[in-house]
């Protein structure tokens, strides 16, 4: 049984992080995670753009987002703290989890820099938690130690984030909030709803206003983002399962396999079968 299953948290280093981050095809993280970079660089592709993380940066990944690894440098050193969401919510943390979670969601898919001295402290904290998790010794209170050490880590991150950008901890601009709600709704409903009108109506705003705000914040139109999300979902289904194309099209809410193939080819210029074939060779 993995540490994630047994204790609710698991820590990966640069030596085994690619067990969880696919190096050669799009992937969806199974659980949320913090990724810390101590040296070197890693470039990930996500919804809107390529994201490069370098020394003394971290990011928060989320199971609602699909990523693709573009490149990694030879001197790459990292720690990934992967955790189950119900584990973090069960801890009796005293900071406002809702605000912190909202801020984390805001920062998702962005690399957040922080001072080297603070990185050193977090790095030591994560390494000690990893040491306890990896220990073969039959520790009487191992579960309790893991919970407390993970709580310490959470407090460290909440303190760093609130100090770095106190304003963002407390409020989003109205435009950011519109995009945040749009992306949250899209993550939940993209298998059944692909019209921009649906998402605008959920916020009681016009389609034109939603599209304008989304374009100004992300650089892409709302309809482009809807297509991107559906395409990413299609890629993951095609390269991580043996489901027939007809079943994939049904899962994604297309009326038939032809409609799905037309949509896929329009956006990627290859058919679903041709795309899948790339990963079989």
From TrEMBL:
Q: Does the keyword Transcription apply?
A: yes
Q: What keyword terms does UniProt attach to this protein?
A: DNA-binding, Transcription, Transcription regulation
Pfam families referenced in this protein's UniProt entry, alphabetically:
HTH_18
Q: Where is the signal peptide?
A: none
Annotated InterPro entries: Homeodomain-like_sf (IPR009057), HTH_AraC (IPR018060), Tscrpt_reg_AraC-type_HTH (IPR020449)
- List each copy of the HTH araC/xylS-type domain by range: 176-278
* PANTHER family reported for this sequence: ARAC-FAMILY TRANSCRIPTIONAL REGULATOR, TRANSCRIPTIONAL REGULATORY PROTEIN
- What name does UniProt use for this protein? AraC-like DNA-binding protein
Give the originating organism. Chryseobacterium lathyri
Q: What broad taxonomic lineage does this protein's source fall under?
A: Bacteria, Pseudomonadati, Bacteroidota, Flavobacteriia, Flavobacteriales
